[in-house]
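Pasting two entries for a bug report.
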Amino acid sequence: MPEVDDPFRSLANTGGQLNISPRSVIREIDRGKLPAHKFGGLVRIRQSDIDAYIERSRRGEVAPAEPEPNVTPRRRSRRTRSREVAA
């Protein structure tokens, strides 16, 4: 019988592929960013879902965003505020 490649990966294996801890993998699953399956008490992630997660997380190919204009008001000094009150 030919060996079939198992498309499911463990939390530890997934964490190793993504260079994050298994706990961080669980957080991504809980946030809905990484689909998972539960068989009995074991959580497993499909390799294709891991690959899709990596592609969604890619940032290098996106055009840089326009810098936001500086809309933060300047803080006035006490001297300026006291002049406004006196006027």
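Entry 2 (this is the one that rendered wrong in the viewer):
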Amino acid sequence: MASSLESGGAGQAHLAKSDATRHISPVVAHELNNLLTIIQGYADRLALKHSQDSTLEAHLKLISEASRRAATVVRAAQPPRNNLPPRPQPDHAPLASAA
């Protein structure tokens, strides 16, 4: 009986650890996303600037795509934002001209 209780406690500890490692701190996620945005932006700009060099452009596009994938992974690893109000969505409606 004691061994089943011990294994139950070990199972709960394992679940707690796996739950903790499944999510990353929002602060860490924010900082990672900042870095990934910079990497992606520079790679995109350099790819445009060096479009005549197909090898360099291809490598820069790989860097940009990898940073996009990494940002997706970071967003997926963030804990749910249940206690925060929904973010306002940008209004992409065309501006009415002043007549």
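Dev reply: Rendering is fixed now. As a check, the viewer should reflect this: The helical segments are 2-22, 26-49, 54-77.
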